[in-house]
Amino acid sequence: MNMKKIFPVLVFALSACTPGAKTVDVFDAKYIKDIMNKTAEWQIAHPKHAQYDWTNGAYYAGMFAAWETTKSQKIYDATMAMASDSNKWLLGKRWFHADDHVIAQTYMDLYRVDKNKNDSWLQATVDTLNKFISTDYPYQGVQVIKWWWCDALFMGPPTLVKFGITLGDSRYLDANDTYYKECYDLLYNKEERLFARDLNYVIKGDSLDRFEANGKKIFWSRGNGWVLGGLVRLLKELPEDYPNRPFYVTLYKEMCGKIADIQQADGLWRASLLDPDSYPGGEVSGSGFFCYALAWGVNNGLLDDAKYGDAARKAWEGLNRCVDEEGRIGWVQPIGADPRKNFNADSWEVYGTGAFLLAGSEIIKLGR
């Protein structure tokens, strides 16, 4: 099977490629590093949102992975400047909300590798996590558990586990297991092997139930992409002999099987996973996380290359069609809480770049 394919990139259309467009080998290692650097540098030049915001938490997860892959000093300096200069190693003010915890994953990544690291870099996060696990959540409405929406499984679990592993504090690992299982029990649909975004999208058999135009249940691409991306970041941390690791591995494999089965012809996934016809145009942030998760599983022996490697490569092809000549990544759904149609080739967000960079960090290993 030919693993390398030549096709026109740097085209904004998700349909037919532009005739005469430049052709490149998107699985060549130099190309992958170059496109990662290019997209990262475009995003550095176009900042958005508070630097501690959840959007940038996903972006800098990708930035750190890009630095690990390319060793770009510009990427590292921008990531360190976010942590030390912009944020001063602090989190957002919502101690109870995983959205304000996610940026600490990059704090820990930097702490682990920087020769000038200081324990003070971690103190604000440690204080917040200690309060988080020892204090009741201000529950209301559908917020019946601490991680009450599926996206939280990217924000919270890798943060707790990174800190628990590095600091040798089992409380964080125990808390993660508890909160993760609560979210799984609340939102995971075992038949569809996907997560509902929150309780509003769990079918309860009443007049408030929501369905797509084709009658299918609503499962958001980005939300499930963040779950799978979070599972990868979690599994990268947990030791092989960790007692609850099999639960996470099983969930990861179940979801990857579903995701590979519903991939669309252009290599991407639609904003609503089970009603693709109602949402034309692939959605890059969810697709980027799916590409990342599938490639990582093949690279680490958890998934079969014949099915999942091919799906990851096809996704990488599709993602590259969404990068313009400047390095801007389009077709990213704006901030929201459910599938939307309000995005196009000109729609970009920092988390879309983060997902693309994470995907590239694993695709480059898949091609070797």
Short synopsis of the structure:
With 368 residues, the chain is mostly helical.
Number of helices: 13
> What is the overall silhouette?
globular
User: Rg, please?
Assistant: 19 Å
Helix amount: 40-55%
pLDDT average, as an integer? 94
Largest sheet: 2 strands, antiparallel
Topology pattern, helix = H, strand = E: EEHHHHHHHHEEHHHHH
Extract low-pLDDT stretches: 1-21
Structural class: mainly alpha
Strand order of the largest sheet: 1-2
Work out the strand percent: under 5%
Secondary structure: number of strands: 4
Alpha carbon gap, first and last residue? 14 Å
List keywords for this structure.
globular, 368 residues, 51% helix, 4 strands, single chain, two-stranded antiparallel ribbon, disordered N terminus
Task: Provide the fold topology.
Layout: E1 6-8, E2 23-25, H1 29-45, H2 54-70, H3 73-86, H4 104-113, H5 120-134, H6 152-155, H7 157-167, H8 170-187, E3 188-189, E4 194-195, H9 221-235, H10 245-261, H11 284-299, H12 305-320, H13 350-366
Antiparallel strand pairs: 1-2, 3-4
Helix pairs in contact: 1-2, 1-13, 2-3, 2-4, 2-13, 4-7, 7-8, 7-9, 9-10, 9-11, 11-12, 11-13, 12-13
